[in-house]
Write a structure and sequence with these properties.
Layout (H helix, E strand, L loop, with lengths): L1 E3 L15 E4 L4 E3 L6 H7 L7 E2 L2 E2 L12 H14 L6 E4 L2 E5 L11 H9 L67 E7 L10 E3 L10 E4 L8 H4 L4 E4 L6 E2 L3 E3 L2
Parallel strand pairs: 2-9, 8-12
Antiparallel strand pairs: 1-2, 3-13, 4-5, 6-7, 8-10, 10-11
């Protein structure tokens, strides 16, 4: 078992980061990097990740952004069909109407799968990708830094990651599981509908996958626009129902 959320007294904690005890019963594979523009365009050739000012977000090895949650789910189904796996999502007119998490195909990680993969270390659950201190270590993440000052008002002073917007996936130090950009580069869509769940103390939840419906989906992780203690912590929870230029995704599937 492991804990998600953050203790009430943790600096930067938000009210939606309720602590919960989780057990994951099945092993899963998670992609080491965020899905790139090149990878996504094999599924949706007309997609563009867009621009910010005079800079493109559409470079081949950079993470795809400006896509909806349904488009991310559609990519998962496309990838499943290419590999002869069963699709997880049922879509009607490009909108997800149901999901079968038992299927062996690709999908978005559940919030708890994402949290475990992001925070795991042999010293316990990490607060930040680079450790327990708010100050990022050199080359640890692509966040709102000195190089982003012409695009973003609020930056992390004294830190320079050399990329003002997105960066090629895998440019920074991976976490203990070998996963890149679990903090920084872009935030990530996950499978779950957004909710703030309060659970009885001591209760262990097994493989939770979020609310059964809703308007918003959970967004986890930080990206090139983020600089605050709140946003850079691995327990930071956000939500959206719209594409964003700092929001991408990665995929998972069952290991067995």
């Amino acid at each position: 078992t492991f804990r998600i959320g953050a203790p009430r007294r943790e600096q930067g904690r938000q009210a939606n980061e309720v602590e919960r005890t989780i057990k994951l019963s099945r092993p899963y594979y998670i992609s080491t990097h965020e899905v790139t523009n090149t990878e996504f365009k094999r599924f949706l050739p007309g997609h563009s990740s867009g621009r910010v000012g005079d800079q493109s977000l559409d470079q081949s090895s950079h993470p795809v952004v400006n896509l909806s949650w349904d488009q991310a789910a559609g990519f998962c189904n496309w990838l499943s069909s290419r590999e002869g796996l069963d699709p997880v999502y049922e879509l009607a007119d490009s909108v997800v109407v149901s999901a079968n998490l038992e299927a062996n195909g690709y999908r978005l990680p559940t919030e708890v799968e994402w949290a475990y993969a992001a925070r795991f270390s042999d010293q316990g659950m990490m607060r930040y990708t680079w450790g327990d201190e708010a100050e990022p270590k050199m080359d640890s993440a692509n966040i709102a830094d000195e190089s982003a000052i012409k695009f973003i008002a609020r930056i992390f002073r004294g830190y320079n990651d050399r990329f003002s917007l997105t960066s090629p996936v895998g440019s920074f130090t991976p976490n203990q599981l070998g996963l890149f950009d679990m903090s920084g580069n872009v935030a990530e869509w996950v499978h779950d509908f957004y909710e703030v769940k309060v659970v009885a103390p001591g209760k262990v939840e097994i493989d939770p996958s979020g609310a059964t419906g809703g308007r918003y989906h959970v967004v986890r992780g930080s990206g090139w626009k983020h600089a605050s203690v709140t946003e850079l912590r691995l327990s930071f929870r956000d939500y959206s129902d719209q594409p964003r230029n700092d929001l991408g995704f990665r995929v998972v599937k069952w290991a067995n």
